[in-house]
Each structure stands twice: as structure tokens, then as C-alpha cells.
From TrEMBL:
This is GTP cyclohydrolase 1 type 2 homolog. Belongs to the GTP cyclohydrolase I type 2/NIF3 family. It holds the Pfam family DUF34_NIF3. One of its GO terms (molecular function) is metal ion binding. InterPro entries: DUF34/NIF3, DUF34/NIF3_bac, DUF34/NIF3_sf, N-reg_PII/ATP_PRibTrfase_C. Keywords: Metal-binding. It comes from the Bacteria. GO terms for cellular component: cytoplasm. Gene3D superfamilies: 3.30.70.120, NIF3 (NGG1p interacting factor 3)-like (3.40.1390.30). A divalent metal cation binds at H65, D103, H327, E331. Homohexamer. It comes from Myroides indicus.
């Protein structure tokens, strides 16, 4: 297989359109035409991981964190980023990063975190905005059903737990074809009126090319009239963080001990205890201080994340318990999820889980 054949499989797992604007995801090092001998999946594509890939005859690294986050003006090997890139290029090892595309995925980083803690009734903490689009098209009434079904096949018409959602209204369409036209209804140069259906469906923007392809194939007209709008509605089944409930409420200290064990962290940092049981829990893998207000607004008893600064613990305001489990620890099982997915999609292809510990933080 070539990289260009594997990328669509990776995009099925995590559409890159899910990624945040500030992020750097996708193919960071390498060439689409490169033939792949094996895939090594890791958390961070450090120099030691590149060495592991070479040793295990894997020339594609799929990593969670992008090794290249901001631009490089020089590549001289003066820091860990440059050294990793130099080694990857030297040994023809390609690097593909997923990061916030998997953070925002409904089955990604935060769902994995929730499953680890045994949370039930989970939902997105901060639904993704500016991601839903709306298609409006006009079809002869008798062909409306075939066009709708084609759009549904492309993934349009999904709203939360429902699919095949649409709105259809009737009206009168008009047109006149010029001498170069080939109308399926009427003749060149003659004004025509046709009973038409106005079909409206919403879709996630990463599906736009698929939706339009289905529209053009299924629509009977030579020239397809359609409109696409960006909606302000938030995408409820994708976004940052999650919130759910423990099956049974727990004493605060019992809960913290459980978190420490489950995340395999060297220690948890937490804000003042409130003397009440923990039932509703919010999580956000990685650096999540920006979502403290969201966790409070949704009534979480505890909010688990990483990289909290000293003064941010005050933001608990005796409304919830803030828990910092460590950046690596909050995302540590992400690479296992990627390996399981790729192994199912490509059962005869070598997909290997990296054994290099890339956590830069140590505990005494």
C-alpha cells in the first residue's frame, strides 16, 4: 500500500476537518506515493520512536501529538523536534499526526477517558461550532425521493441520534435553455415551468465533497441548482471534552484513588475537597483549563484534565473538584485505540504499537 491509500482509512477514524484551526495534523513528513512496509503507532514521534520504527521495519509513524507544531526556519538538529525530523527524512520514515481530530471525535480521546473511568450517559462537553452546513436543492417532484436517498447515503441528514432527516416543500420552478443546453424537460429556447420539490438537508462539512458528488449523480437536471450555507448550530456529537456519570456515587477521596489507579499516573493534583460525593464527572484529555467554566456550568462534581496552573485551581470556586491527572496520562490509551482500529481495517498489514515511553514527566 502507498501512503495515499492509507490516508483515507485514517480519515475514516478521524476526519482532519474535526481538528482545531491552531493544530497541525495530517501527513507532516513524507510523500503520498511512498510504499508502506509497516505502521508504528505512538504518542509522540520523537527521535527514539523513529529509531524504533526503523528497527521494526515500519516506514510510517502514526502519532497522536504532531512533532511539527509550528514552522521550522532551520533544520540543524539543535532540538528534539529537528532531530526527529532529520532522522525521519534520513531513513525515509513518514509521519502522520492525528491530535485534535481525535480529541473532537465522539469515540476519540475523551470517550476513551470516560470508558476508563466507567462513566455512563456521556455527552460532549463543548460541542463543535461552525461545522454544520445546509444543502438546499430543487428537484422535479417525482425525482425528489431518489435525490434524498442519495444524499442520505453520503451521510447528509444526520442529526444527533437520528438519520435520514430532511425537509421537503413544493413549488414551481422555471427555466429556459439556450442553444447549447440539453434539457431533460422541455426544449431549447422555450420557457418552461415545472412542479419542483425544495429539498433541504444538513451535513457535517467534511462530508461536503461526498454529498455534492451524490447530488450531481442522482439529480436529473443537466444544470443542478443548489445552495450551501454554514450554520451557527453546534455539532452536538463532536467537540472538546465529555461529561458523564459514575454508575454509583463515590466518596471524594475514594474517587481520587480510583482515578490515580485507572490512569496509572504517578500522582494527581486536585483542588479543595467539598465534602460531598462524586457522581457527575467531566473530562478533557490534554490541556483543558479552558473548559473549567463549561464543567461548572453543566453541574460536574469533578473535572479531570491536565496542565492546570496554580491559580487555575482557585477557579473551582467550591463548585466542583478540579483534578490534574497529567497530560500523558489523560491520553495514554489513545495509541491503543488507533492500533485496534487500523488492525481491523488492515488485518494483513503490519500495525505495531510503539513500546517507547514518550512521557517527559517523571514522578518520585
Amino acid at each position: 500500500m502507498k501512503i495515499k491509500e492509507i490516508i483515507p482509512i485514517l480519515e475514516e477514524l478521524t476526519p482532519l476537518a474535526y481538528a482545531e484551526d491552531f493544530d497541525n495534523v495530517g501527513l507532516l513528513v513524507g510523500n503520498n506515493e511512498q510504499k508502506i512496509t509497516g505502521i508504528l503507532v505512538c504518542h509522540d514521534a520523537l527521535e527514539t520512536v523513529v529509531e524504533e520504527a526503523v528497527e521494526k521495519k515500519c516506514n510510517l509513524i502514526v502519532c497522536f501529538h504532531p512533532i511539527l507544531f509550528s514552522g521550522l526556519k532551520k533544520i540543524t538538529g539543535k532540538n528534539y523536534v529537528e532531530r526527529a525530523v532529520i532522522k525521519a527524512i534520513k531513513y525515509d520514515v513518514s509521519i502522520y499526526a492525528i491530535h485534535t481530530a481525535l480529541d473532537n471525535h465522539p469515540e476519540g480521546v475523551n470517550k476513551i477517558f470516560c470508558n476508563l473511568l466507567g462513566l455512563k450517559n456521556t455527552k460532549i462537553l463543548i460541542p463543535k461550532s461552525s461545522y454544520i452546513q445546509k444543502l438546499i436543492t430543487f428537484v422535479p417532484r417525482r425525482q425528489a425521493e431518489q435525490v434524498k436517498n442519495a444524499l442520505f447515503e453520503a451521510g447528509a441528514g444526520a442529526i444527533g441520534n437520528y438519520d435520514n432527516c430532511s425537509f421537503v416543500s413544493d413549488g414551481m420552478g422555471s427555466f429556459r435553455g439556450n442553444s447549447q443546453s440539453n434539457p431533460i424537460i422541455g426544449v431549447q429556447g422555450k420557457y418552461e415551468e415545472v412542479e419542483e420539490a425544495k429539498v433541504e438537508v444538513t451535513f457535517e462539512k467534511h462530508l461536503q465533497s461526498k454529498v455534492l458528488k451524490k447530488l450531481f449523480v442522482s439529480h436529473p437536471y443537466e444544470e443542478v441548482a443548489y445552495e450551501i450555507y454554514n450554520l451557527e448550530n453546534k455539532l452536538q456529537n463532536a467537540g472538546m471534552g465529555m461529561i458523564g456519570e459514575l454508575e454509583n456515587e463515590m466518596d471524594e477521596m475514594e474517587f481520587l484513588k480510583m482515578v490515580k489507579t485507572k490512569t496509572e499516573t504517578g500522582g494527581v493534583r486536585y483542588s479543595s475537597l467539598l465534602g460531598k460525593p462524586i457522581k457527575k464527572v467531566a473530562v478533557l484529555g490534554g490541556s483543558g483549563s479552558f473548559a473549567i467554566a463549561n464543567a461548572k456550568a453543566q453541574g460536574a462534581d469533578a473535572y479531570l484534565t491536565a496542565d492546570l496552573k496554580y491559580h487555575q485551581f482557585y477557579e473551582a470556586e467550591k463548585q466542583l473538584v478540579l483534578v490534574d491527572v497529567g497530560h500523558f496520562e489523560s491520553e495514554r490509551y489513545t495509541k491503543n485505540y488507533i492500533v485496534e482500529y487500523l488492525s481491523k481495517k488492515m488485518p494483513t498489514f503490519a500495525v505495531i504499537l510503539s513500546t517507547v515511553n514518550t512521557n517527559p514527566v517523571n514522578y518520585l
